[in-house]
Write a structure and sequence with these properties.
The protein is mainly α and 94 residues long. Helices cover 65% and strands 0% of the residues. It is rod-shaped. The termini are far apart.
């Protein structure tokens, strides 16, 4: 970026910074929403709420279906690279 274009785009720096922060917050929220431990904890809380009578059966089934879908469907990629681990027995020829 040249000096002139840098000076011309300087007023947009706060907007670009805000957009960058918003993008990272959204990616983190998606990651946390699809974390299997968090989803399982929400399922446990949902079961407790049903047992205590805080929600009815229809609301329980709707939310349970949504949470189970989150567990089955992987999160959308955020553009970050992740490492995957394989089982030690995989990849070996016997």
């Amino acid at each position: 970026m040249g000096l002139v274009s840098g000076l011309l785009l300087l007023p947009l720096a706060p907007v670009r910074g805000t957009a960058w922060i918003a993008d990272h917050l959204l990616a983190e929220a998606r990651r946390q929403a699809h974390d299997p431990r968090a989803v399982q904890a929400r399922l446990a809380a949902l079961n407790r709420a049903l047992d205590e009578g805080a929600i009815d059966e229809a609301a329980f089934e709707r939310e349970e279906e949504r949470l189970l879908t989150l567990l089955e469907r992987p999160a959308r990629p955020t553009g970050r690279t992740t490492t995957t681990s394989t089982h030690p027995a995989q990849g070996r020829r016997t």
